[in-house]
């Protein structure tokens, strides 16, 4: 790998680190509830975010093919900074909704583009490791938040949001120093030919689309449990807020470990890595379905995160191999669109379950993981058998 590429990857990691310093993360749901939003409204806002992301995935993909990866990353970074500013001053359902809509536009710009950018900087044999480290950097930042939380929480919720906005601003400035990357031949195709090439990619990867759907189901449940259900569940289990930072730290250290573990586990076979991830997900989902007491929350929320975050780089690496003759950014945006569609469907379902009691949200999430695991093992097994164990 060229030295310039190594420097660019490290700078990209630095951007990801600063833009992931969400100082309010240990009390994300409680922060919103403090300023007039219910848990159901939180999940409703998340679903609106997914809808916007879904609608803008493909347009952003075509824009990226036209203006380049760096320009797209900078534009999306500016919107991300605006969303952080709105979150800092948000009060009530409407403002939180607007903030999340702006963030959704930014996320749809990042989606696919970040993976495509890193893929272009990395040799194919090192791609899984690079993507795993990218995911690990995000959780490294959140672990930093966990370590500092006992101190910064003393300054109040608004200060947590302000510190987050400042760090996202630093990340945006660093984005400006990212190098431009030359366009691929596929990026110069006219939109009509881009769509035709993308259709061929999706047509020849129908089974893999089901794999993407199952992965999205796992990640949506994991994200909802560990981000939105965690702090209310801790509160219901009688855990003092003084421990929230440490619990959040453990979740993020586990997430970081999952990103680093993924490539090593995949060296023994992609099928083995996927099987281990889904087995861990099933164990944690079953346990959380049976009980949400203190011990279960402390043990099995991190286990669920480990499963999801070890699986994500596996799937990302597989996606980069399945872009065919379409623009890499457009193809990866299409896969992300599938993920967003799953999020739109599952968000309200998980949130509605909490209407009677939080435990019903855990019940529904566990059922979703069981269903996804059943589909995953059937589809992955048949596809791997047809294409070869390491070629899925």
* SSE class: mainly alpha
- The name CATH uses for the topology is Growth Hormone, Chain: A
- Count the helices. How many? 15
Radius of gyration: 20 Å
Main sheet overview: none
Q: In percent, how helical is the residue content? A: over 70%
**N-to-C span:** 25 Å
The succession of helices and strands, N to C, reads: HHHHHHHHHHHHHHH
- From the 3D coordinates, which CATH architecture would you assign? Up-down Bundle
Integer tally of domains: 1
- At the first level of CATH, what is the class? Mainly Alpha
The strand count comes to 0
| Share of β-strand residues | under 5%
CATH homologous superfamily grouping = MFS general substrate transporter like domains
Q: What's the overall geometry?
A: globular
Low-confidence stretches: 387-392
């Amino acid at each position: 790998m060229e030295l310039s590429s190594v420097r660019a990857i490290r700078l990209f990691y630095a951007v990801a680190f600063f833009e992931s310093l969400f100082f309010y993360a240990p009390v994300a749901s409680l922060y919103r509830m403090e300023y007039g939003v219910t848990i159901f409204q939180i999940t409703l806002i998340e679903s609106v975010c997914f809808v916007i992301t879904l609608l803008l995935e493909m347009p952003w993909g075509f824009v990226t093919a036209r203006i380049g990866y760096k320009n797209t990353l900078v534009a999306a970074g500016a919107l991300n900074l605006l969303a952080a500013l709105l979150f800092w001053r948000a009060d009530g359902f409407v403002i939180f909704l607007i903030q999340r809509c702006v963030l959704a536009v930014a996320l749809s710009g990042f989606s696919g583009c970040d993976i495509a950018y890193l893929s272009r900087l990395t040799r194919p044999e090192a791609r899984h490791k690079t993507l795993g480290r990218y995911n690990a950097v995000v959780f490294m930042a959140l672990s930093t938040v966990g370590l500092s939380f006992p101190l910064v929480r003393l300054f109040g919720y608004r200060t947590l949001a302000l510190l987050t906005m400042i760090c996202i601003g630093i990340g945006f400035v660093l984005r400006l120093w990212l190098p431009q990357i030359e366009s691929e031949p596929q990026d110069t195709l006219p939109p009509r030919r881009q769509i035709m090439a993308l259709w061929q990619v999706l047509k020849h990867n129908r089974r893999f689309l089901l794999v993407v759907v199952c992965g999205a189901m796992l990640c949506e449940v994991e994200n909802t449990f560990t981000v939105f259900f965690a702090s209310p569940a801790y509160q219901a289990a009688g855990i003092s807020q003084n421990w929230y930072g440490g619990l959040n730290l453990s979740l993020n250290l586990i997430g970081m470990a999952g990103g680093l573990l993924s490539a090593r586990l995949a060296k023994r076979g992609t099928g083995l890595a996927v099987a281990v991830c889904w087995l861990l997900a099933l164990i944690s989902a079953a346990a959380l379905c049976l009980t949400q007491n203190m011990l279960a929350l402390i043990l099995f929320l991190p286990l669920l995160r480990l499963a999801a975050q070890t699986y994500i780089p596996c799937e990302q690496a597989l996606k980069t191999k399945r872009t065919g003759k379409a623009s890499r950014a457009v193809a990866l945006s299409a896969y992300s669109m599938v993920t967003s569609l799953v999020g739109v469907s599952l968000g309200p379902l998980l949130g509605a379950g909490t209407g009677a009691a939080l435990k019903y949200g855990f019940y529904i999430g566990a059922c979703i993981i069981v269903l996804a695991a059943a589909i995953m093992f059937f589809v992955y097994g048949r596809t791997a058998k047809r294409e070869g164990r390491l070629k899925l």
